[in-house]
Design brief:
This protein has 401 residues and is of the alpha/beta class. Helices cover 33% and strands 19% of the residues.
């Protein structure tokens, strides 16, 4: 019996409410050996107060030593084994902007990048252009045509866009063209099987035409393609947990993740204050809320230690408003670590705290990497977090006689 079948068997109806507050890329590293991480540097009296009345630990997103993307990181938090559900980022981006993905589609996440005169990448995110520039640049890409397939190009946000190839016999097992480095050219798309090789050929034709279309548009004069994917079979959140759930996320990809598992997508506005206001306004309508905060991740990816500290403090400031709603279970965690020192996602376990009346407190008075290492939850795989949430919410019955 897998864990989802076990949860279906044991789940019980209740009127309790669960809030999952995800600070994207929350975990960090000290800049110097023995120093403080971003979370340990930040002033977080409200998260510390959660640690004092809750139970803390460290969550491993996939497996020890494995660095997760945002998709696997969040699927684990939602209780879907990221090794079993390998969801391409393109599908998540497409769903996040309400693009209806069909059975003949391959969806791909695109990034605008800056290419130097030698064709090498000088900026993988094209200087984070405005969304308005993204929209204008996408309009130019819509002039591209490729025989035998339909091509759809949609803007997302800043340097991100979505490409969908629609046609017969296309596969999604195509490698990324983003080399994850500067000073080198984009990679050629390559497929792992005949159907995916067909998709790769289409992608390379698209990239060649795009390079010509955008050649005079620096800094958005190039692009890379990531996360080639077809639509996967997956059980819904309500089917597994019996929870009426809602997502409050600003960035499209995270709305896509939530939509993939059947959550309702609520208007989140553009700021953390907007998100908390939406949570308050919708409080009586749902059993489970996924509240996503992006900027602890993006500042880490930028290598900006002080900015990440500031974003953690901004998150801390809204925690009392969330607790004032009296959720039966409040979980604060991240989908992965994004240390400013590394400027990227990492494999390091993520600080996690559960606040509920049924918590066995562990004596901690601080929410940080070092403190959570001593917490009562220990180190655990993220895919078990939802079972802990359900148990603390009084929604799981006894197993066996």
């Amino acid at each position: 019996m897998n864990t989802h079948d076990l949860i279906r068997e044991l789940r019980e109806p209740a009127k309790t409410k669960i809030v999952l507050l995800v600070a994207d890329g929350l975990g960090g590293l000290p800049l110097e050996p023995g120093g403080r991480t971003e979370l340990e540097t930040a002033r977080t009296p409200n998260l510390d107060a959660c640690a004092a009345v809750g139970t803390s630990g460290l969550s491993t997103p996939v497996l020890p030593g494995i660095t997760p993307g945002s998709g696997p990181g969040h699927l684990g938090l939602f209780g879907y084994d990221p090794l079993e559900y390998r969801i391409g980022r393109g599908i998540l981006e497409a769903l996040g902007i309400n693009f209806a993905v069909g059975p003949r589609d391959v969806a791909i996440r695109g990034n605008f990048c800056t290419l130097g005169p030698d064709g090498n990448i000088t900026d993988r995110r094209a200087g984070r252009p405005t969304t308005e520039r993204c929209i204008a640049t996408v309009e130019k890409l819509r002039t591209i045509t490729i025989p035998g397939v339909e091509v759809f190009v949609e803007p997302v946000k800043e340097h991100r866009f979505v490409v969908v190839f629609r046609g017969d016999g296309l596969g999604g097992a195509v490698g990324d063209t983003d080399p994850q480095a500067v000073g080198v050219p984009p990679l050629e798309a390559k497929g792992a099987d005949p159907a995916s090789a067909k998709t790769a050929a289409v992608a390379n034709a698209f990239i060649a035409q795009a390079r010509e279309v955008l050649k005079n548009d620096a800094p958005t004069n190039g692009l890379t393609l990531r996360g080639f994917a077809t639509y996967p079979p997956i059980s819904t959140f309500e089917d597994v947990y019996g929870l009426k759930s809602a997502a409050i996320a600003v960035y499209p990809m995270y709305r896509g993740l939530a939509r993939l598992v059947g959550m309702d997508i609520l208007d989140a506005g553009q700021t953390l204050a907007d998100q908390v206001a939406r949570l308050k306004a919708s409080w009586n309508d749902y059993d489970f809320f996924f509240l996503h905060y992006k900027y602890t991740d993006s500042t880490g990816e930028d290598g900006n230690f002080p900015a990440k500290v500031e974003q953690i403090e901004r998150l801390d400031a809204v925690v009392p408003e969330i607790r004032a709603l009296k959720p039966d279970v409040l979980i604060v965690t991240g989908d992965h670590s994004t240390p400013s020192k590394l400027r990227s996602h990492s494999w390091h376990p993520v600080p996690t705290v559960i606040v509920a009346d049924a918590c066995r407190t562990d004596g901690l008075t601080e929410f940080s990497e070092r403190a959570c290492l001593r917490g009562g939850l220990g180190q655990f795989e993220a895919k078990y977090l939802m079972m802990l949430a359900m148990a603390h919410a009084g929604r799981l019955g006894k197993y066996g006689a």
